[in-house]
Amino acid sequence: MGFLKNQFSSVIEWNENGAGVLFYKFQNQEIKKGSRLIIRPGQDAIFLYNGKVEGIFQEDGDYDIESDIIPFLTTLKSFKFGFNTPLRAEVLFINTKELLVKWGTKNAINLPAPGLPGGMPIRAFGTFNCRVAAHDVLIEKLAGIRQTYTVEDVKERIIASLDQLLMSWISKEGRDMFNLQADARNIAKGIEGELDTDMETLGIGISGFTIESFSYPEEIRKMQEKAAAQSMVGDMNKYTQMAAADSMGKGGSGAGMASDMVGLQMGMAIGQQMVNQMNLNGGANTAGQGQQPAQGGAGPKFCPNCGTPTTGSKFCGNCGNQLF
């Protein structure tokens, strides 16, 4: 039975059951006669013997170890399987795909800001892309001591240095601390270059880094909203000038602008007429209840308080002043 057991075929493969794994080391180091190697799309297979790279296979497919793999290994070309002599080697599977990772600052970063002695605490969120860039460096630095290496390991290393990088790149060129989102692309580009250089020492490449948003404290957001609301308040002349400029910028005709202005004026006039009518109705109702108008005439033609024409009403339609 021992003889038959050694002749069973084995399959060397990586199913990538765990998401976000950059490399995986095949655990069974005994490769028996009749074994097959399966390389899936987006994978490389590296044969290691005594810690040394024997061969790198990058084409996906199903290979026979004895006939398709061993003849291409550097120092094992003449290896012959015997009844009790399995090939003792390691197979390292490399994920060659580019992986997208979400990141976020663990704690608020205090950035120097005018008027804030303790600095302004902000948080940032975004994504980065990583991939295996150098097989030999990865094997030398990581594969000898790790069974796997994941994007979470990369993320942990990046987050550790991200606070200092954000402070450094935000502080450059006198950027507006209260409007960092406007310059997020340039800040991210600078950080990407430094992260790529840092991860290069492990054989990992950072091929993209983005900042999706900066998060300010609630007090700062309220101040920004208040300032924005105040900036929108102005007199009617300023409003109409802005509306006219906006219409011209959108290709609006002079006739369309005139129509908008007439509509605005008509709306104001209708509102005034409604106030006057309410005053007249109020006066009529009062007279219907048996109250007599005050003696001495029909009252002034203009409000003595604000100068608005009275139109025969008992109260000024503009300021509400009693006329008689």
Primary descriptors:
single chain; about 325 residues; alpha+beta; Tetrahydropterin Synthase, Chain A; 5-stranded antiparallel β-sheet; 4-stranded antiparallel β-sheet; 14 strands; disordered N terminus
Describe the structure.
With 324 residues, the chain is of the alpha+beta class. It has three domains: 10-95, no CATH class; 99-223, Tetrahydropterin Synthase, Chain A, CATH 3.30.479.30; 266-280 and 296-324, no CATH class. Helices cover 37% and strands 25% of the residues. The chain is built from eight helices and 14 strands. Strands 6-5-9-2-13 form a five-stranded antiparallel beta sheet. Strands 10, 11, 12 and 14 form a four-stranded antiparallel beta sheet that branches. A three-stranded mixed beta sheet has the order 1-4-7. Helix 4 (151-170) packs across helix 5 (184-199) and helix 7 runs antiparallel to helix 8 (254-288). The longest helix has 35 residues, at 254-288.
The low-pLDDT segments are 1-8, 284-296
**Which CATH class of the largest domain is shown?**
Alpha Beta
Count of alpha/pi helices: 8
**Quick check: average pLDDT?**
78
CATH superfamily of the largest domain: Band 7 domain
**Total separate domains:** 3
Overall strand count = 14
| Sequence of strands across the biggest β-sheet | 6-5-9-2-13
The CATH architecture of the largest domain is 2-Layer Sandwich
Q: Rg to the nearest angstrom?
A: 39 Å
